[in-house]
Target: ABC transporter permease
Amino acid sequence: MNRERSFQLLRTAVSLLIALAAAYVIIFLISDTPLEAIRIFTVGPFDSKRHLGNIVEAAIPLIFSGLAMAVVFQASLFNLGAEGIYYISGAVVSLVAIFYSMPAGIHPLVIVILGGVIGAAVMAIPGVLRAKFNASELVTSLMLNNILLGVGLWILTNFMRDPETGNQISYKFAETALLPKIVPGTRIHFGLIIALACVLLTYLFLYRTKWGYEIRMTGINRDFARYSGINTAKVIIMAHLVSGVLAGMGGAVETIGLHQRFEWTALPGYGFDGAMIAMMGGNHPLGVVLSALFVAYLRVGADMVARLSDVPTEMVSILQALIILLVSAERFLHTYRQKWIEKGVKHGRAA
Model:
């Protein structure tokens, strides 16, 4: 591991420790029983099989969204379209989960593949606009999120809303469409296996294929990549398509993994979370898994402390904002970065 990457890992670890320290300070300031609240927040998520399962359940959609963002970030693109893709893929695959009958093993497979296709088709829009017209993918993806929310709500209201319920939710999914649970006593479902398979495939794609190399080179220096013969327009579109597939599969897996109806009436937030997960993980697939588990741990701890003490769950939003600020701040620990790299160069020469 080179010293630049090791420093980034160190900086991320320091950022997380600062965020946790801030959480403890907040708890001390607002709680009447701060020590008990800190105990619940810190060790509560590990005190039972069910709570450990909650961490893994919460991490599954974060892994998909983190991978989706990591791919476009590797190409130095800042696309937040995974948020809308999660919603629209969940809405469309719900139609298949409700109204189509298939064998138990085939039904979820078709739904997950369909989610990936929907994600690729949607993400192609900002990708083509960026590659062909140099339109900001950040702006186009954010605008697209609102459009996809409106389309998804229209599908829910007009085609699958259950009139016998008082809420705006769909009919129940067919039993054959649901992903099976794989760990007794928890809600951990087969989506975990799919997510880990996507982690492996994303790693192989980014670091073991020509296309992944082109994405990374384009991200490092687009002009140099173009002068080297890489078709950067094609790379931009390809990165968007791969990102869309991952986000669309994530939306489908979350929909049929933890729910029996389509219940989202607003954007679920997973796409925006993916940007934080990818940055924390250094845009590396393995880093995405570790970051997703850490964020899931924070959320489970925050939920437990909100239910069992007097600390509100909004605390986790403060932690996430602080983590993003520290991880994304180029000047954070910049002086130490220079010394760290220079020390490595001197040692290399001495050797």
